[in-house]
Amino acid sequence: MAYSLRSTEVSSPTHAAARAYACRGIPIFPVAAADTFKRPATANGLLDATTDLEKIDGWYGANPSLNIGIATGPAPGFFVVDVDGPEGAASLAALEAEHGALPETPEQTTARGRHICFAYDPARPIRNSASRIGPKIDVRGDGGYIVAAPSRHASGVNYAWHAERRPSKMAFARAPEWLLALAEKKAPPALRLVPPPGPRPDRAPAPPGGKLITPYGERALRDECDKIRTAQPGTQEVTLNTSAFVIGTLVGGGEISETVARAALVDAGMAIARDWTLTDVAQKVERALSQGQAQPRSAPEASRPAPPQRRETLPDAAPPPPQGDEPVSAADMRAMMQRRSVEPAGDGVKGTIEVREGEISHIATEAEAALIAFGNNLYQRGGALVRPVVDEVDAAHGQRTNIARLVPVERYYLTDRLCLAANFVKFDGRKGGLKRINPPPDVACTILARVGEWKFPRIIGVLTTPTLRPDGSILDQEGYDEATRLLLVEPPAMPQIAASPTRADALVSLTRLRDLLVKFPFVSDASRSVALSALITPVVRGAFTVTPMHAVCAPTAGTGKSYLLDVVSTIATGRPMPVMAVGRTEEELEKRLGAALRTGQPLISLDNCNAELGGDALNQIVERPTVDIRILGKSENVRVEARTTMFATGNNLRLVGDMTRRVIVCTLDANMERPELRSFPMRPIEAVLADRGRYIADALTICRAYIAAGRPSPAPPLGSFEGWSNLVRSALIWLGQADPVDTMAAARSEDPRLLEMGAVFMAMRDTPAIGMERRLTSADLIKLACEKETRMLGEGDYRDKPEQTWRHPDLREALLAVAGSSGAIDGRRLGKWLSSHKGRIVSGVRLESETGGRTATWWLSSAV
């Protein structure tokens, strides 16, 4: 028998809509009208969904007020994202802001929110979930259903399709990949902290024997949960309420703990949840449990086992540990934890965490708090969790020393720390108690994924040497220092430093440090001061945020550049200086430096810099306390705070550009052809290793004495490096040493880029057609530089032979040096060069510029 909308009399708008859905191939089934719980009106619920118009007419002909249910999933070809209320709307907005807007697709409004429909792909099955992809955002997929327009909600509001996004007007869109990934993701096991022991007021008595459930209660709970899980659609809510009430009576009678009963019932209820959220199920269980507890009952006496023989134990003795999978009572578990606790690095407060379903976010937070409370030496740095590692390495002359570094925390290591910080337990329904388990992997993964949300302390670096704080106090106690965010580990023994050392004390310490440098061939007193600064600065590095790079150069190899820095490093770290090659490109150097900075390495030396040393990345790392660095092997940046002291060595080292004001230079020159053949009567490294703590104390004493004296006669300001200048530099000058910053002038005078800039400025000034104040474009400059003139060359009889020469050869050569390409002056390169040097001053001449329209004009002005 054929049916159509035209040939059949419909009884109501929902009847007509039900037929329309069926005609489009969408199976429907009737849902009870005005029912808060949206229960199916047939015995088999959504299993009765059909497109058979005869059945549909029978249902709605008999009861026109029935609502419409649509079984989601493969049959209708769509699944639904159910956005519930303002909280759900806010969650969806946050997801779209992070991942991108959802595509237009059929959508209906509900009493409190929206149903957004997406095409169902059988190859990627989507199942029901509650608040998995976001708070108050549920998913209805395979095995689920929705109430469809024009059904009426119990509140009186009608479901309605969006005017422009109805199934009859547009096809169901494919869900974006990020939404599918969230919807497919399995719910991880969640955790909650076990409540502290002791009776709870107005609650049922605990089961006898200290257990969480008696054997009779266990059997009853298992039976009722099985009834809930096997309840047929249409009877599920009644079954849930009835079973929860029955169990509630046993809770009231002391057969089952309320915690165990609630967890098991909610778990069973979620197994049959169709249009219920986790909150819905929990509320139903809580209500029925409370009603049952008001009518307590206990197990019949015949069902109780005979009490076991009591063992005599010492009053304070802890119970023996469980054997195999034997469940443990809460009291036994607490006693066992107290006996087996591990000595922590911090407070050692070891909590108990019970694994449950549905609360992973909250319990990951609790697990993080447990790690912090226990004191596991976990820190955050550069967008990663890190931990300190101390390695024993070769020092020199057969000795060993300890070095510290920071390494990323991996999932397995974090799981290991969780085992030490908390006891993870899980309810065993068969045994009726809690049993020990390993921390679920999802806990560690969730904590590691929370970049930017961690509560772990931030760390700047890790040291094995005492240092100064910004307030001038000495950091010499092992452990994490909140003032500097530095971690001091295994510092060497050090002599006592006076609370207020005098200038005389500082001079004694200075003499001891100078003795280490006796045989180094410094070309000037300023170079020796740079070496002294290199010895002191890494030790007191915690007192200031940035410091200049210390460079050591010489005309030939073997002069002692690397050896000098090994002496520096032996004081600061107990081992030779770690070195790094500059690399072929600036990008390669940046990534190498970034990898070292992320580990908190206190010293970095760029070795054998025989080419020009400079570049934006190196400039920033030296000058800025916080830098964005590229990760080696990846195309991404992280931001780190650095307390590294930078060094460099090179033969005839040349600093370029802005590096000349960021580096102090120690120059060595042995004035001999084979300087490597020299001998050192005193071996500085052996002297340091014999009493390293003494030399550390010397560096601290020099700076502490200057602070105690009131910081007299501070050195002239040094831009970007005020902290270092006001302490190390000023202390050295106060003790009669040369100013190490004087070496910057020599480096600046040898800067090839500065020399090129001076050549251009002077050539412009000395060219009669330009001079001072005359405004020219870059094209005008190129034209002048390329002008030729004819000159009569030779003498006597040969004077009449003409030859063309450049009219302004100095200008041409200067412009070719900065913008030459294949023997010609490139206009684009010249324009960029001029723009990058606008406002610079050389020899009292400033380069000025003005832009009119799309053309810039350039001229020289007096800077005097």
In short:
The chain is an alpha+beta fold. The chain is built from 25 helices and 36 strands. Residues 1-7, 187-210 and 304-349 have low confidence and may be disordered.
Describe this structure in words.
It is a single chain. This protein has 25 helices and 36 strands. The chain has 864 residues and is of the alpha+beta class. The strands form 12 sheets. It has a 5-stranded antiparallel sheet, with helices on one face. It is elongated.
Tags for this entry?
alpha+beta; elongated; 864 residues; five-stranded parallel sheet
Instruction: Determine Rg (CA atoms, Å).
Output: 40 Å
Q: Describe the global form.
A: elongated
What level of helicity do the residues show? 25-40%
Report strand order across the widest sheet.
6-3-5-4-8
Average predicted confidence as pLDDT: 81
- Total count of helical runs of at least 4 residues: 25
* Cα-to-Cα separation, first versus last residue: 106 Å
Number of strands: 36
Give the topology, please.
Elements: H1 13-23, E1 28-31, H2 53-62, E2 67-71, E3 78-84, H3 85-99, E4 107-109, E5 113-119, E6 137-140, E7 145-148, E8 160-161, H4 177-184, E9 189-193, H5 215-229, H6 236-252, H7 258-271, H8 278-293, H9 330-340, E10 351-357, H10 360-374, E11 379-381, E12 384-394, E13 400-408, H11 411-421, E14 422-428, E15 433-436, H12 441-449, E16 461-463, E17 467-468, E18 474-475, E19 479-481, E20 486-488, H13 503-515, H14 525-536, E21 549-554, H15 561-573, E22 579-581, H16 586-598, E23 603-607, E24 612-613, H17 616-623, E25 626-630, E26 637-641, E27 645-651, E28 654-655, E29 663-667, H18 684-690, H19 692-708, H20 722-734, H21 743-749, H22 752-766, H23 778-785, E30 788-793, E31 801-806, H24 809-819, E32 820-821, E33 824-825, H25 827-836, E34 841-842, E35 845-852, E36 855-862
Parallel strand pairs: 10-14, 16-20, 21-27, 21-29, 22-23, 23-27, 24-28
Antiparallel strand pairs: 1-2, 2-7, 3-5, 3-6, 4-5, 4-8, 9-10, 11-12, 12-13, 14-15, 17-18, 19-20, 25-26, 30-31, 32-33, 34-35, 35-36
Helix pairs in contact: 1-2, 5-6, 5-7, 6-7, 6-8, 7-8, 10-11, 10-12, 11-12, 13-19, 14-15, 15-18, 16-17, 18-19, 19-20, 22-24
